[in-house]
Amino acid sequence: MKRMNSITFYESNHQAHLRITSMKKHQILLTVALLVTGFHVNPFLSAQVPAPSAKPAMQFRTLGADCAPEGLNYQLGSNSVAVSVPQGMRSMPYDYSGASPLVLFRTVTGKDGKPTQQPVVSVNLSQAGTYPLLVFFKGKTPDQPVVSVLKEDALSFPAGAFRLVNDSAVPLNAALPGGVLQVPPGSIKEYHGKEGGVFQVGIKEIDPTGPFLAFNSNVGILPGQRIMFLILPPAAAAGHVQIKRYADGVPLP
Questions:
Q1: Domain 154-253 has CATH 2.40.50
Q2: What is the pTM (predicted TM-score) of this model?
């Protein structure tokens, strides 16, 4: 009996060992199957993917025509963003999703010793489109610039276009590839030509004492480019208008 019990006990232990070994094999096979079917990918698939950031209502750039005010900021949500106004060139694009007007301010120390916003200029953006250029001109005082808003999206200012911005009091005639364009004082005129090529451009002052050729040169436009001529008042009382030329690529949609 003792031997039979010993044999029976051995057989029971052996069967239990076989069952455990079989269960381990099933566990290994199940683990392999889960790995093959993408067990480790599923947690990533079910994870929350951050939504893409909302596209701003517009992006504006700045250009200092005959002044370059410093220390300007604007409000973007709860953040104060510093704005650069480089003279003679366009700035980087700045996102803006607020209302019109856009208020540019300086941060100064108030009477209570705390920082406060001091408005410098308010810019009407109601007709600015989605990609305007803010052009800064001298105002009555250095702390009060005048800002003109130019639409520079691809539809308003396409590739191959010539734009003439006359900020002077002198009437002008611009000889362009398509003919002569009259540019009265304080006006903005455009000629939409072909992109890519070299063109002869002449800009004359129309003065009672006789015309003066203020600009005469071959102007090249690369594919995807447009040209802006900015005409400023004479630097001296008896002088002639100042003409600055800016080439720029059309923004992507």
A1: no
A2: 0.76
